[in-house]
């Protein structure tokens, strides 16, 4: 009885459902489906290939050791200064720099000091170098904390600030070694916040990309964060002026392979920003 009713329902439903012609044709021709799919894949291959990134295989080795081969740690200080206190701040910080140069056995060297001219205004960026790894950083911090003159200057500096941030960085091994500049230059710091787990992929791509950006001696330094905001990358570039910057960047796009390097790194980025920097009078690099 039940089977008879089920059979009648099935026949009734079959008669009432009208299958469109195009769907009946697709269902009868798997070869046509395959051809259409291959054609679509070929059409999209150009742009899709550039969006895909290589898979990073699991490893027991720290990413920092795979990307950096130096026992040198850099300290990036970012100070947001009160607009009415910039002159006092500059005098204070110059005194800090001079004091650190006088303290014996202090392996703490200022590489560059800049004011932000395009980006976050009333902001100053200072790049220091520690030689000897984190053990030497511990020694440096102990020496400075016990120095009364340094403590006094540091407390005074706090009166001129709105906020400040510090990061410990490692230098990418594939970037050129830092060379202090002379004359009149501007600097650009391009900072990237990457998706967690993509630092190796970033390094793989930029190890090739840096070769497209060596004209006019523009690369100054390239770092990735170790302590502070993580998965941060900072690229420092040096130019004579904004016009040279524009010409140099446009020339990079004429270099075969640069566009692919950009396309491979774009999917790795969560956020990015650019700032134009001018060296302070007491900056070792100008």
Report on this model:
The protein is an alpha+beta fold. 42% of the residues lie in helices and 27% in strands. It has ten helices and eight strands. It has helices spanning 2-16, 21-28, 30-51, 63-67, 86-102, 133-145, 148-158, 199-209, 242-252, 258-265, and strands at residues 72-81, 108-118, 123-131, 161-171, 186-194, 219-227, 232-239, 269-279. An eight-stranded antiparallel β-barrel has the order 1-3-2-8-5-7-6-4. Strand 6 and strand 7 form a beta hairpin. The longest helix is centred in the first third of the chain and has 22 residues, at 30-51. The chain is globular, with a radius of gyration of 29 Å. It starts with a helix and ends in a 7-residue tail after the last strand. Residues 1-7, 9-40 and 42-56 have low confidence and may be disordered.
Radius of gyration: 29 Å
Main sheet strand line-up: 1-3-2-8-5-7-6-4
Helix content: 40-55%
The overall strand count is 8
| Major sheet size, sense and barrel closure | 8 strands, antiparallel, barrel
Rounded mean pLDDT is 83
Note poorly predicted spans. 1-7, 9-40, 42-56
Strand content range: 25-35%
Shape: globular
H/E series, N to C? HHHHEHEEHHEEHEEHHE
**Computed structural class:** alpha+beta
How many helices? The count is 10
- In whole angstroms, the N-to-C terminal distance is 96 Å
């Amino acid at each position: 009885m039940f089977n008879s009713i089920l059979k009648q329902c099935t026949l009734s439903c079959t008669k009432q459902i009208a299958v469109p012609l195009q769907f009946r044709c697709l269902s009868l021709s798997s070869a046509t489906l395959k051809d259409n799919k291959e054609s679509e894949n070929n059409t999209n291959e150009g742009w899709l290939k550039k969006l895909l990134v290589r898979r990073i295989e699991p490893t027991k080795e720290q990413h920092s050791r795979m990307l950096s081969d130096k026992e040198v740690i850099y300290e990036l200080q970012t100070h947001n200064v009160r607009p009415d206190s910039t002159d006092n701040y500059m005098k204070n910080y110059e005194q800090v720099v001079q004091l650190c140069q006088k303290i014996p056995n202090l392996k703490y060297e200022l590489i560059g000091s800049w004011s932000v001219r395009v980006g976050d205004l009333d902001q100053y960026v200072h790049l220091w170098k520690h030689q000897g790894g984190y053990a030497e950083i511990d020694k440096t911090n102990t020496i400075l904390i016990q120095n009364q003159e340094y403590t006094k200057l540091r407390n005074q500096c706090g009166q001129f600030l709105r906020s400040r941030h510090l990061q410990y960085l490692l230098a990418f091994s594939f970037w050129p070694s830092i060379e202090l500049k002379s004359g009149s230059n501007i600097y650009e710091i391009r900072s990237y916040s990457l998706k967690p787990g993509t630092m190796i992929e970033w390094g793989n791509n930029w190890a090739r990309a840096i070769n497209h950006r060596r004209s006019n001696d523009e690369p100054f330094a390239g770092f990735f964060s170790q302590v502070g905001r993580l998965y941060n990358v900072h690229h420092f570039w040096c130019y004579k002026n904004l016009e040279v910057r524009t010409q140099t960047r446009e020339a990079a796009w004429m270099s075969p392979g640069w566009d692919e390097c950009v396309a491979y790194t774009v999917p790795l980025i969560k956020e990015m920003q650019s700032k134009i920097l001018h060296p302070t009078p007491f900056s070792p690099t100008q």
